[in-house]
Design brief:
mainly alpha, single chain
Length: 103
């Protein structure tokens, strides 16, 4: 599946870069943290849609949050160690908050 209108993949646009094992693991953990938050919002949507009278505002807000997270995930840069560390903490916390009903 292409992510760009011109049918190129995001990997086609990456500059050459040699990653260390630590950078690879940290980047993958940051991506997984974002994915966890996406999954938490997906659970909110599913739960709301199962209700007899779903609140469309809740569903739309959760969908908007997932779209925002997809953009933020694409903006992660494995060479930006501070961004990656902050993302890991932020998105893991966000997933917990959403799951607990606090976000």
């Amino acid at each position: 599946m292409s992510e760009f209108a011109d049918d190129t993949f995001v990997t086609d646009r990456l500059e050459p870069y040699t990653w260390s094992n630590e950078e690879t693991a940290a980047y993958e953990a940051a991506v997984e943290a974002v994915n966890g938050a996406v999954g938490a919002y997906s659970a909110v949507i599913a739960a709301e849609e199962r209700r007899p009278d779903p609140d469309r505002a809740v569903v739309e807000e959760a969908r908007a949050a997932r779209a925002r997270l997809a953009r933020e995930r694409r903006a992660l840069r494995p060479t930006d160690h501070r961004q990656i560390a902050a993302a890991r903490a932020h998105y893991a916390r966000l997933a917990r908050d959403v799951t607990a009903g606090g976000a």
